[in-house]
Structure formats: structure tokens, C-alpha cells
Amino acid sequence: MGFGFNLFFSCIIFPVSLALFAMWLHKRKSKYLKSLLWLWGFIISGVVLSLLFRPAEIIKLKKEDYYGHYVIDQSFFDKKQAEWQYNHFRFKITDSDSIFFYITEGKTITKTYSGRIETTNTYSSERLVIKMDQPTHHVLASMPTTIRSSKSFYLVFKSSKYHNMFFRKGKWESTTN
Q1: Where do the DSSP E strands lie in the chain?
Q2: Which end of the chain has fewer CB atoms at under 10 Å, N or C?
Q3: What is the pLDDT along the chain (177 residues), one digit of tens a residue?
């Protein structure tokens, strides 16, 4: 538990518990014992509920977690715009710390931009740092923001032409049937 809980416990709960127990021992009246049991029942219930309903822990990323293929996450925009971005941009990060950003027409790669990746570990989760060979594409002009949840993550690139672009790990698959 945290400092506040420990302080509250040692300064209030523990002395009150001792006083109720001493009064029960001295007077043998059940109201003191009932009060003590209610107090501790309330405390134990609160601790159990806080453990059950605490937020899920957010994943902590390591450099290796960034390796893989990335495609546009189509859930952030309307179908037409998202599908257009999905069919025109994707990239991969290799285990040799290289990044290859692809401009595409569907499954055909029309241009490739390359660079290197690093991570910074100044936070609990490593953050991606991209160093692109120049000239580079406007999508890669700034560092991505990593958005993490308890089970996955996605990368947000700030494009001067398209604003935020959202990439998730995954293989590109044709969207036409």
C-alpha cells in the first residue's frame, strides 16, 4: 500500500483497534468487539475491492517489441480515408534496428525510405527513436508517439499533410475482394 494508507493505518486504525480491543477486554461488552470486527471487515473489504478493480497494468515495451510490420490502423478514420492510407503507407522495423518506410499502391511498393531505430529507456517503457536517411518522407519528419494499453500498443506519427497517422503491428492484406 502507499504512504497515505500506511500513515492512516498507523495513526488512526491501529490505535482505534487497540482501544476497542482493550475496552472489550476490560468491560466484556459485545458492542466493542462488534465495532472492532466491523472496522476490520470494512478495511479488508476495501483492500480486496481495490485489488479487484484496479486498472490493468499498462505494458512496458522493450526495443524488441517494436520489431515487426506496421500498417495503418483503420479504426481511427472513416472507411474511405483509412483505406486510402492503409493502401499507401506501411513500414517494418527489423531486428537489425533498421526501418523501411514504404510508399505503396496496394501491394506494390513504389518507394522505400530507410533509416535506423533506437530506443530511449529514460521511462519505465522504452520509447522509439527513428533516425531516417535524408531526404525523408513527411510522415517520418518527427518522432512517433507510442500509445500503450494493457495488451497492445500503436504508434502515432504527426504528418504535415495528413495530421495524425495511426500504425499498428500487422501484415498488409488486400482490402479489395
Answers
A1: 68-72, 89-93, 98-105, 108-120, 127-132, 145-148, 153-159, 163-169
A2: C
A3: 577 778 887 888 888 888 888 888 888 888 888 998 999 999 889 888 888 887 778 889 999 999 999 999 988 888 888 899 999 999 999 999 999 999 999 889 999 999 999 999 888 889 999 999 888 888 888 889 999 988 899 999 998 888 899 999 999 888 765
Measured at the CA of 85, the angle between CA 84 and CA 87, to 5 degrees, comes to 65
Size of the chain, expressed as the number of residues it contains: 177
The SS3 call for residue 107 is coil
